[in-house]
Write a structure and sequence with these properties.
Strands 1, 2, 3, 4, 5, 6, 9, 10, 11, 12 and 13 form an 11-stranded mixed β-sheet that branches. This protein folds into 2 domains: 205 residues, Nucleic acid-binding proteins (OB fold (Dihydrolipoamide Acetyltransferase, E2P)), CATH 2.40.50; 51 residues, no CATH class. It is of the alpha+beta class. Keywords: DNA-binding. GO terms for molecular function: DNA binding. This is Single-stranded DNA-binding protein.
Length: 330
């Protein structure tokens, strides 16, 4: 469990593998399972996009006063895992607590005051019915109490810059660029997708998949090379896709869910003295074969440089992973 005094010293928990790895996610607590050590944080109305948060029930339990549908904040570390043939991002909480007002959007204040308005008027019998409650009662149909108690997702309006933040630094293990993509239903062109596997440990299966989406990501892909140390600011998200037709009775289709990190901006290079990578692991040397002082000196001309690049990373490295077997499956 992350002690309160350690929370004020980010360096004490932000470098679990000697490399920057920190984040926080705020939202609504859902489906907590303290036996399996997993809960979900819901940030939108869609339950399919709830974010899975792993935790150690003994070391980092959820506070007893935070219940289902309460707002919660998790300080997290991120790693990767294999889910069948797909690479996924996996976050684990090192501390839970209630979010503060800065994690909430501008509309939360008004919704918060309206809810208290109903409570205060209920306590003061002669104060009348508040307008917010009267408007709900005037709506046709049953379920007034359910509407009063329901969670107003629009009013919650999380501050997106303060409710989902992941920062990681590490070495590029592989990359995959998908260009000229088409929408699977109507065939219209959609954005390029660049997937980069960021490695922070000896286990290559634990590489963290980071995605960029944009109109033309080939220039960015060409800037990135296997072994390059980079820093990324992103968000923890779910890629949800229907994998069957909707059920005839329920209208619900089966979906696949792939957790991943979506970059918020362009990656930055990590210099040796930046402090983002405090410990250089021995396994990183294998990523640098063909680089630096061990690399053959390039000759003049584009053909020679292209041949050296192909030898180091594979002939299709601008659009495919740098090493065999590391193709992003998502």
């Amino acid at each position: 469990m992350l002690p309160q005094d350690a929370k004020r010293k980010p360096d004490s928990y932000s470098y679990p593998n000697g490399m920057l790895n920190s984040g926080y996610i705020a939202g609504v607590l859902r489906l907590n399972d303290p036996v399996k050590g997993i809960c979900y944080i819901q940030q939108t109305r869609s339950e399919n996009h709830m974010l899975p948060i792993h935790y150690d029930p003994k070391k980092s339990p959820i506070p007893k006063d935070i219940k289902e549908w309460d707002l919660i904040m998790a300080f997290v570390h991120t790693d990767g895992a294999m889910q069948g043939d797909d690479r996924i991002a996996r976050v684990k909480s090192i501390r839970f607590e209630a979010p503060n007002l800065m994690h909430l959007g501008g509309r939360f204040r008004d919704d918060f005051m309206r809810k208290w308005d109903a409570v205060v008027h209920a306590a003061a019998k002669d104060s009348g019915t508040p307008d917010s409650v009267a408007q709900l009662e005037q709506q046709p149909g049953a379920g007034t109490e359910e509407r009063l108690d329901s969670f107003d997702w629009k009013a919650m309006d999380l501050n997106k810059n303060a409710s989902n933040q992941i920062r990681i630094a590490g070495f590029i293990q592989a990359k995959s660029l998908e260009r000229n993509r088409k929408h699977p239903v109507d065939g219209t062109p959609i954005n390029d997708r660049l997937v980069v596997l960021i490695r922070q440990s000896k286990d290559t299966d634990a590489c963290i998949p980071v995605r960029w989406y944009g109109r033309n990501l080939q220039p960015l892909s060409e800037k990135l090379a296997r072994g390059m140390p980079i820093i990324v600011n992103g968000e923890f998200r779910m890629d949800v896709k229907a994998i069957s037709l909707p059920d005839g009775e329920t209208g619900i289709a089966e979906v696949s869910k792939i957790p991943f990190i979506q970059a918020k901006d362009m990656p930055g290079p990590v210099t040796p003295d930046s402090g983002h990578i405090k410990i250089v692991p021995g396994w990183a040397a294998e990523l640098f074969k063909g680089h630096g002082t061990q690399a053959p000196q390039p000759k003049q001309g584009d053909a020679e440089r292209s041949a050296m690049f192909a030898s180091a990373f594979g002939s299709d490295s601008a659009s495919k992973p740098a090493i065999p077997g590391e193709q992003q499956g998502a």
